[in-house]
Amino acid sequence: MAAAASSEILRFPQYKYVDAVRWLPLISAFDRFAVLATFDFDSDASSIEIHSFKPNSLSLESQSSWLSPSRVSSLKASQFLQKTIIVASTSSGSLHFLFSDSTDASLESEVSVPEGALHSVPASCVDLMDGGVECVTVGEDGRVNLVTVGNSNLNYRRLFDSAGLVSYTAAKWASPKEFATGGYGFGLQLWDQLTPGGPVSQLKGNWDKKLSAGMVHSIDIHPSRKHTCLVGGSLGTVFAWDLRSPKQPIVLSGIGAGAGAGNRSISESEVWEVQYDRCIKSNTSSTRILPSMICSEDGILAVIEEGEEPIELLAEPCAINCFDIDRHNPSDVICSFEWEAVAILTRQ
Question: For this UniProt entry, what is the primary localization, expressed as one broad class (predicted)?
Fold first, then answer.
């Protein structure tokens, strides 16, 4: 395993479970904000909270909060014009859009889709289009929905319904008209809104018999390489699906990885989240996969690059449930621990 670059790690106990965490779009060089989805086991209360991170005082302070009707199952944030939009799905099946003021990150308003309107079960994943007002939701009930934010309401339509024959657990926008989904058996699908009726391309989950019982937990698509989906899932598996060679994925880590140098698996448990790591300046050609970051059930936060030894950033005694790389300052990573804490890691 390659040695990690020097970094500063700040831990902030929350005294309640953190289901998800995301950086908010940068407002100014001096104002840093993050949104947390929390659950208090003692009071059975769920909330979405905006916290201010002050690097000079090394503090994470609560700014505003919104009480959720149930636990948050998926959380995303984006910026549209002068507003920050936060979208959250809940375990009761509702979908909520929160609008935040761009000057102080205070929560201003909320519109929602009631439970049962989109999915018969909680949405497994939602993804909000960068710089846009359209959201895709997927669920284990096999439904794929598109939700558009209007001036004061939400418009939604069902793009596809497998009637439970196919279950979806992850989704990610690739372009204003295309997005990818993933689910059980490591299957992947690419959808195009201009081609209704089903996915336009698929990766069937039988590409490696050892992984046929696995599940896709997270998908990322780099804005400059929209033909490649980065995937994290069960058994420590991280792979890339290149649409130019759609039948055989490139395994980066996990039990399907090769035994050669640079292919060492960093984890053997669930990879809860995967993102392209924009902090790593790679010299790889267009035929190689860009560096990525993963977090796992066995407490690993690490960087993976094709053909290189993985770089371990954190090794915790509990699960790292999710993380987010600040797109404006890619050296900064925020993550949540199963042991009711948030950490901010700054790479030098």
Answer: nucleus
